[in-house]
Amino acid sequence: MNLPPSNCLSMNLCLVGRGVLTPPSATRTPRDLGGALRTARPTSAGLGFPRAVSGSWPGRPRRAVTILELLIAVSLISFIVLALYKMFDQTQEQMRKAVREVDKFESGRSAAELLRRDLSQLVAAYSPLGSAAVNFFTGTNWATTAFGMTNNGTNIHMNTLDDVYFLAFDAEATPTNWLAMRYWVADSTAPVSNVTAGLGTLYRWTTSGNRFSPTYQTINYAASNPQRVAENVVHFRVVGTTNGFAVPPGGFLTNADVPTHVTVELGYVDAKTASRARSFGPVDMVSFLSTNVDSVHLFRMHIPIRNSQQ
Question: Which end of the chain is more exposed for a tag (fewer CB within 10 A), N or C?
Answer without folding.
Answer: N
